[in-house]
Amino acid sequence: MVHHSAFARSHAMPASRHNLAFVFRRHISLSFTNSLTSGNRRNRGPDRDVSTIKGRATAEGTRSYREKHRDLAGGWIPKKDWHVSRFGFGCHRISVSSSNPDKSENEAALRVALRGGVNIIDTGSWFENGNSERLVGDILKELTGSGELERQEVVVISKSGPIPPSLLSSLPSGIPYVEIPNSQVHWSAHPQFLEHYITYSLSRMGLDHIDIWGIDGFDRALASPQMSPTQLSDLLRSAFQHLDKEVERGRIGGYLWSSNSLSAPGGAAGFGWGLDKIVSLVERPENLLAIEYPFNLFESDVARAIQPQL
């Protein structure tokens, strides 16, 4: 069985005039099993007993890793000179939870990927209530501890934005968020929210550095009556400013913007939000490393949407 999340993202890396890497979500799984129920998943806090893995992805480390796996197609993240596999490991449905019947299969799939030439891991702070990040941390600790893998060889991506109901109760009071219409999911990109979730994610994975942090699902916020396009512009500008500070602190290496509707008519949610709009909100473009969006047999409009902007 090929799990829904295993090798679920293809990372093609042409450089645009903004010198960004393009991260394509291309679901190629043959089958998908999701036997988890939200009631059985535990939301553990950031005090998990995981020793910290020191280091970060480097140009030298990723190049060395790719030299060992020349048989697998490669890509490139230009602003960092990171050499990565064309296919990444998407972690949306993997979980370390004891209630996950596919836990062993999830762990085995990530081991196979990292041993076989895949050196870009794409997870999220809310994936499986944080249990996706915990599984990533467990396998990284195992393989770096055994000497099979060096931390500097792997690019780790995580992200925040959507807040499922199960995680809303753990959000510190006073952090603003918006409700998404016709959904139980909330959303935020407030600087306090980013600070909170980067801290959580570092602890869950047992890392001292996340190579790329993503702001995901801003197009959901545009659908909320609580958020006007002008308000969202101001919020994202302050969010990117905070992430610039996180780069200076050394907690992240850079950031990406993730959207499911980049290719929608008129841009995200019909408000005309394209690549140029997002880039205009960034004060330090050297820290904006990539954009992420769907591109597959069923979602191919993005090829036309971004072509004039390359």
From TrEMBL:
Gene3D superfamilies: NADP-dependent oxidoreductase domain
Chain positions covered by the region annotation Disordered: 35-62
Domain NADP-dependent oxidoreductase stretches: 88-254
SUPFAM superfamilies documented for this protein: NAD(P)-linked oxidoreductase (SSF51430)
GO MF entry, a single one: oxidoreductase activity
GO-annotated cellular components: cytosol
Pfam families: Aldo_ket_red
InterPro entries: AKR, NAD(P)_OxRdtase_dom_sf, NADP_OxRdtase_dom
Entries under PANTHER family matching the protein: GH17980P-RELATED (PTHR42686:SF1)
Protein name as catalogued: Aldo/keto reductase
Organism encoding this protein: Gonapodya prolifera (strain JEL478)
Taxonomic path: Eukaryota, Fungi, Fungi incertae sedis, Chytridiomycota, Chytridiomycota incertae sedis
